[in-house]
Amino acid sequence: MIRWQEMDATVERLLTAAREVFDEEGFRGATTRKIAARAGVNEVTLFRHFASKEELIGAALARGHAEAVARLGAAPLPEEPADLDAELRPYLRMVLQAFAGAGRGVRTALAEWEHLPAYHAWLLGPSEAVMDRLRRYLAAAARAGLVRPGADPDAVTHLLVAALFSHGLLPPMMPGRFPGGPAASFERCVDIILDGIRPEPEEVSR
Amino acid sequence: MIRWQEMDATVERLLTAAREVFDEEGFRGATTRKIAARAGVNEVTLFRHFASKEELIGAALARGHAEAVARLGAAPLPEEPADLDAELRPYLRMVLQAFAGAGRGVRTALAEWEHLPAYHAWLLGPSEAVMDRLRRYLAAAARAGLVRPGADPDAVTHLLVAALFSHGLLPPMMPGRFPGGPAASFERCVDIILDGIRPEPEEVSR
DNA sequence: GTATCATGCAAGCGCTTGCTTGCGCGTGAC
DNA sequence: GTCACGCGCAAGCAAGCGCTTGCATGATAC
Questions:
Q1: Is the predicted pLDDT of residue B5 greater than 60, yes or no?
Q2: Fewest C-beta atoms under 10 Å: which of A71, A85, B38, B115?
Q3: Does any CB of chain A come closer than 8 Å to the CB of residue B43?
Q4: How many Cβ atoms sit within 10 Å of the Cβ of residue A86?
Q5: 8 Å CB contact of A110 and B173
Q6: Are A192 and B151 a contacting pair, CB within 8 Å?
Q7: Is the CB of B63 under 7 A from strand D?
């Protein structure tokens, strides 16, 4: 009989280690020796559970993808927008946190993008999900008259994602450029975006 | 007597090749054999001109940095802002073009950031210059009453850079997400930002 | 004509990479 | 008790890495 408990523990440690090392060093830099060492496991054991380094990292990324989707799903946007400020901000805050947490990995993924077509779905999935959700929400908000008619939902989505993107990735590289911390800076950016898409005062009052 | 003409030609080809391969493959992936092959030069010749791979890539990045600064300097912003729309848009357009052109290299640089401290100045310099210039311009515009008082120049700068950043890097990875092309999408984002920082109509008319 | 110098070519060094082989140990199942 | 199974350990393989050496070649300078 298979001792699932032990095997799972080893596989688990390997997956976690693979994810961590991949995040820090990229695919090329994530050597099987480093991964095995971080997992506290012999390198041979790695190859007993996974046919190749490619398969191991693929499995690790798939698990990370699943976790990210689950985390993002826990921050839902209402289907019927009522108050942009009150609804969008908590959602964006949660997404930014998830994004910043994965920031190191996102950066390495960006770099080796063309070399890792097999992983595109896992790497891009969460971002695509956020973009789709935001777009749908903003389109509904526009229909409900909560957004100035001229503001294209696609463009607003891009702008929000751009802010998420840069505030999730850049702070470690440009410390000092985010006075008050990345979170506060992000909040100020959202202020401007929301100001830019708010309906004219006249339209609201009348 | 040294034949500068030939030697320069070889060094030139090596620098160009090093830059290209580094952009595509990163530092680890840019092997001396690949660089020499792309330059159409024997690998030994590479080491006759540069003490090490690290020095060669450093020189190539320094040249790229100089070129980028020169290109960005050709798109000046006035010291005394008069018309945000008319002045900011051409500048941003030019920066976006420069950014998109360097996009591949920026992505690899992002990934290996922590591993290449020696290159930070070369890699980050142009972006820092753009941020400083934008910040100065926006602060002056705020003083001139061209920007709504609530809009923090730092936040506006961040938002503009975020839009530049994402529109320069993401299109190759998410084709189809930029209907009408990245340039048009970027323009729409700038629309929203400018709308978000414009002074209230009442303030202007009175 | 001869000296000089950039370059090409063949070969190889020591090291790291992904991955394999063979063997021995300990634990749990029956 | 013994058998199966997960694992560690030592060793090694072919390939690729950065970098070096020695020698031949061809163009230029004087």
A1: no
A2: A85
A3: no
A4: 10
A5: yes
A6: yes
A7: no
CA atoms within 13 A on the CB side of A43: 6
Q: Quick one: tokens of A181?
A: 């911390």
pLDDT band at A1 (very low <50, low <70, confident <90, very high): very low
Question: Do both B47 and B98 map to the same domain?
Answer: no
Do A153 and A55 share a domain, yes or no?
no
- Domain CATH number, residue A138: 1.10.357.10
Q: What is the DSSP letter of A180?
A: T
Look up the protein residue whose alpha carbon has the minimum distance to the C1' of C5. B2
Using CA atoms, how far residue B39 sits from A185, B104, B118, B133, in Å, is: 44, 19, 24, 36
Question: Which residues neighbour B36 within 8 Å (Cβ) at sequence distance 6 or greater?
Answer: B14, B17, B42, B43, B45, B46
> D23 C1' – A11 CA distance, angstroms?
55
Number of structural domains found in chain B: 2
Three-class secondary structure of residue B30 per DSSP:
coil
Alpha-carbon distance of B161 to B169, in angstroms, equals: 12
If you average pLDDT over every residue of chain B, what do you get? 89
